Amino acid sequence: FGGNVTNTRGTSFNLSGSTTTFTGSGSITPTVAMTFGNVVVNTGVTSATVTAAGTLTIAGNLTLNGTAALNGTEAVLLTGASTTIDGTGSIGAATTVSALHTIQATANLTLTGTMTLSGAGNRIDNNGTVTAATLAGSVAGAVWTNLTSSTLNVSAALLTTGTLTATANPNTVNYNGTAAVNQTVKPTTYHHLTVTRGASNVAVINAATTTLNGNLTVTSGTLRIAGGVGTTVSVLGNVSVTGTLDLRGCNFTASGSTSVGGTISFTTGVGGTKTFVGPVTINAGATWDNVINE
Predict the structure, then answer these.
(1) Which strand (E) or helix (H) includes residue 48?
(2) Which of 105, 258, 259, 262 has the CA that lies 20 to 30 A from 142?
(3) How far is it, in rounded angstroms, from Cα 130 to Cα 111?
(4) What confidence score (pLDDT) does residue 293 get?
(5) What pTM did the predictor assign?
């Protein structure tokens, strides 16, 4: 298709057994329902935009080549079991995933619309690099898995409901939101965890137990760990801080080396134990602010 696609039949439109390629910008208008099999959106397509009431279902593989975009005001349903998502483009439309999808290792995708994992056992297995806004789950059994050498950058909510599996060695989850509202770090087990928020923005670990089998890196913005003695963060690798690590009431352990080029503070909140097992290097211009001696 090189332009607009509109279903005006009043009944569903089904190409689930075929591969559909979009070669030009246009609107996809599923007035009732439209189902595609494999979908390819090619380089040079500014956007394939889903509009109007109705449902657009992709039952096969989805590939977004180059700077291609799949946008729109209506949700896209990704229903194909054991199918793949690949490419270097973006998805601006909201998407609902209701079966196992694998993001390929060659992918470098941007998800500006909310992606919802719908239903227990439905999951995304990520082998590539994904930069997302909001990732949501409908139930606790909806799972996003970061596999070996993958990266998930997330700027808003990460599975407030649902399960994040990020233990593969190595993989990285990066909290990179720039909104003024604090960004919550999901309590779970990570390999590498990074924070690259805006200079005045805060990511917060505020409950439960968070374990890093790899490294903690606070490149920019602030990572605040609070919540009292019920909050425990253990870093089995190294800690690098060029932004701010704000250790409030919590238990915090860094087993490897710690390098401070920004600020580590213990300035408010009481309770908990802060333990640095390995060597600590405070670089020129950095701050170790131990106002409260815990």
Answers:
(1) strand 48-50
(2) 105
(3) 7
(4) 56
(5) 0.94
The distance of Cα 17 from the centroid of its chain, to the nearest Å, equals 31
Q: How far is CA 55 from CA 12, 19, 32, 44, 72, in A?
A: 9, 18, 7, 25, 12
Amino acid at position 23, single letter:
T
Buried/exposed 186-203: b ≥16 CB within 10 Å, e otherwise: bbbebbbbbbbbeeebbb
Cα(187)–Cα(205) distance, rounded to whole angstroms? 7
E strands, 62-184, in order:
62-64, 69-72, 76-78, 83-87, 90-91, 95-97, 101-103, 108-111, 115-117, 123-126, 129-132, 135-137, 143-146, 151-154, 163-165, 172-175, 183-184
Q: 167 or 70, which is more confident?
A: 167
Whole-angstrom distance, CA of residue 109 vs CA of residue 128: 8
Q: In angstroms, rounded to a whole number, what is the distance separating the alpha carbons of residues 135 and 152? A: 11
CB atoms inside a 10 Å sphere around CB 212: 24
For residue 22, give the nearest of 52, 44, 2 by alpha carbon. Answer: 2
Under a CB-based contact definition with an 8 Å cutoff, are residues 108 and 90 in contact?
no
Cβ neighbours around 269 below 10 Å, total: 18
The Cα–Cα gap between 175 and 154 comes to 5
Burial status of residue 180 (CB atoms within 10 A of its CB: 0-12, 13-18, 19 or more): exposed
**pLDDT tens profile 20-29:** 998 878 788 7
The answer to whether 14 and 32 have CB atoms below 8 angstroms apart is: no
Distance CA 170, CA 150 (A): 8
Cα distances (angstroms) measured from residue 136 to each of 14, 26, 109 = 28, 28, 17
Pairing of strands 232-235, 13-22: unpaired
